[in-house]
What does this fold into?
Amino acid sequence: MTETVLPARMAAGDPLMKQKNLRGKIFHLVDPLPDRCVRHGRSAVAHPLVNVLSDPDVDDLHIGLLPHGWGSPLMRWAARMQRAVVVQEKWPLCRICDRLRRWGLRGFTALVLCGILLVVASVVARILVGEPRTAITWMVVTGFALLPLSLLPLSLIRVQWLLRANTVTDGSAVIVKRPHPTFAEEARQISEAHRASH
Ligand SMILES: [Zn+2]
It folds into this structure.
């Protein structure tokens, strides 16, 4: 599998650099990114600020008294947020990628809001009607079903999916898996030019 390695580091002169424990610290890419998207190699039209998180080793974490494997994925997610190293950068997105990101965000928000509204409305309806009705039960069921469904559009804006990017655990690089050849080639050229000028 092809991959592009983008070196990263903390801002020069950052006092945190001296600390041994780098987890939860913010890094930046050493070289500028090509101005085209990772997936299609097309010219960028948007540059949202993105946090690319590392996958910390959470197996060494003692998560309460829960047996091994329990407590995930929520606890794993919390551990990841708490312990991950972040490479923060403005990432190039082409028209298609940017549209996917917008759809993902809107879809997620819409499903969550509809889910909550249906549950709240069913509680109000139950109080007003004063007795159980099939329609009210369906409102509750649909409302709660929409909440996990909202994870589907959310997966569209996952950094690992949209940018195919992951930060290595010590924050020294971002690995882009299966980059578009044009993106990979431009990243290589930028990196070489940057090395030559220093
Ligand atoms: Zn794209």
About this structure: The beta strands are 3-9, 26-29, 49-53, 86-90, 165-167, 173-177. The CA atoms of residues 1 and 178 lie 6 Å apart.
